Amino acid sequence: MLISNAYAAGPAAGGFDLMGFLPLVVIFVLFYFMLIRPQMKRAKEQKNMMDALQKGDEVVTSGGQLGKVVKVSEGYVSLEIAENVVVNVQKPAITTLLPKGTIKSI
C-alpha cells in the first residue's frame, strides 16, 4: 500500500500539574502587592483626611483651587478662595490638606 495508516495518539497524561498553575499564582501575588494593596492604603488615607476636615483647614481641590475651609457639612465643604468669596465643593474633590499658614505665604 502506498499510503500509510494514520493512528490516533493516546490519551494525554491527566492530572493536576502544579508547575503549570504556579505562574498564575505568582502573577496574582505580584498584582496584589504592587497594585491593589497600595491603592487600598491611599484610599484609606484619603477617607481619613476627609473625615478629619474642620473649619480653618487649608486645602487644595482636584481643580487646583487653594482655599480655607469655612464650613463642613455631610457631603460638601465651603471654601473661602479669596476675601469674601466662598465656593461649595464636594468632599471627594479635596485632594490635599495643607499646613496652616500656607495660603498667606503664597
Task: Explain what you see.
The chain is α+β, with helices and mostly antiparallel strands. The chain folds into two domains: 17-52; 54-106, SH3 type barrels. The chain is 36% helix and 27% strand. It has helices at residues 18-51, 102-105; strands at 58-61, 66-72, 76-82, 85-90, 94-98. The radius of gyration is 29 Å and the shape is rod-shaped.
How many DSSP H or I helices? 2
CATH class of the largest domain: Mainly Beta
Structural category: alpha+beta
Span between termini: 96 Å
* Fraction in beta strands: 25-35%
Total strands: the figure is 5
Mean pLDDT: 89
CATH architecture of the largest domain: Roll
Biggest sheet strand order reads 4-3-2-1-5
- Low-pLDDT residue intervals, each spanning 5 or more residues: none
CATH topology group of the largest domain: SH3 type barrels
Order of helices and strands: HEEEEEH
Q: How much helicity do the residues have? A: 25-40%
**Main beta sheet strand tally, sense and closure:** 5 strands, antiparallel
